[in-house]
Amino acid sequence: MVEVLTDYQLVSDRAAGIIADQIRATPRGVIGFATGGTPIGAYDRLVALHRTQGLDFSTLTTFNLDEYVGLSPDHPQSYHSFMWQHLFGHVNIRASHAHILSGLAHDVDHACTEWEHRIEASGGIDLQILGIGSNGHIAFNEPGSSLTSRTRVVELAERTVQDNARFFDRPDKVPRTAVTMGIGTILEARCLLLMATGDHKAHAVAAALEGPITPDVPASALQRHTNVHVLLDSAAASQLSSV
Ligand code: PGA
C-alpha cells in the first residue's frame, strides 16, 4: 500500500501511529528500526506517545538495520548513539532487548551469523522500518547487492558517503564500510514500513516501486514482499505514475 501525505510532519505522525499500533497489539513483539534523517520525526512522536499516553516499550525487542564499521557504540555518529539519542534514551526500553550490530566486532562474519540467529530466536521481525537512499539502497545494501543477501560487511557507495557527510564534521570522517542486514534478511520481516520524503528521493522511489526488480535498485526487492506500507510526502511521490 502506498500512502502519499503532504509533508514530512504528516508522514512522521502516520509512521509513529503505525509503529505505536504494532507495539500496543504485540507488546512482546519485535520491531526493526532504521536510522538516518527520515525517521527522526517519527521517533520524536513515539517519545511523545510514551510520555503522554504511556506507550510501553518495556517488553519490546528491537533490531537495527545497520552500523558503521570502525565506530564504537559511544561515537557520536554511530547508529548506536543515534538510536539512544533519538528514541531509546527517552522511552522505557530494556537495553538488553535493543539489538544494534557492532561496528567493532573482532570476527565480523561470526557476528553477522549470530545476528541472523538472534533475529530467528526472537521469533522474527514483526515490523521493519526502512528508509531509502537517493541511490535506491535499503539499509546499506547498495546498488549491485544480491536481492537474497544476508547480514554482512559492505562497502558504501560514493553517493551514500556524500549523502551522509552532513552528519559528520568533515567528509573524510564518513566511514567507507558498514555492517548491514541483507535484503533477504529484511524481506523476512512480516511487515515493512518504508518512509521517504523530499524530492531528492523521488527518482529512487519511482524506480523502487514501479521499475524492474533489479540489484541496481535494491529497494525494488520490496515489490516481492506481500505486506509493504509505503509512506511518502508529495515531493517523494512526484515521479510516480500511478498515485
Ligand atoms: P535518510 O537516509 O533518511 O538520511 O535520507 C535514508 C537511507 O539512506 O536509507
| Major sheet strand order | 1-10-9-6-2-3-5
Helix-and-strand structural type: alpha/beta
What percent of the residues sit in helical stretches (DSSP H or I)?
A: 25-40%
- Report the mean per-residue pLDDT as an integer: 97
Number of helices: 7
The molecules bound to the chains, other than polymers, are:
2-phosphoglycolic acid
Largest sheet: 7 strands, parallel
Low-confidence stretches: none
Q: How many angstroms does the end-to-end distance come to?
A: 10 Å
SSE string, helix = H, strand = E? EHEHEEHEHEEHEHEHE
Rg over C-alpha atoms, rounded to the nearest angstrom:
17 Å
Q: Describe the global form.
A: globular
Walk me through what this model shows.
This protein is α/β, with parallel strands linked by helices. 31% of the residues lie in helices and 17% in strands. The protein has a seven-stranded parallel sheet with strand order 1-10-9-6-2-3-5, with helices on one face. A three-stranded antiparallel sheet has the order 4-8-7. Strand 2, helix 2 and strand 3 (61-64) form a beta-alpha-beta unit. The protein is globular. The structure holds 2-phosphoglycolic acid.
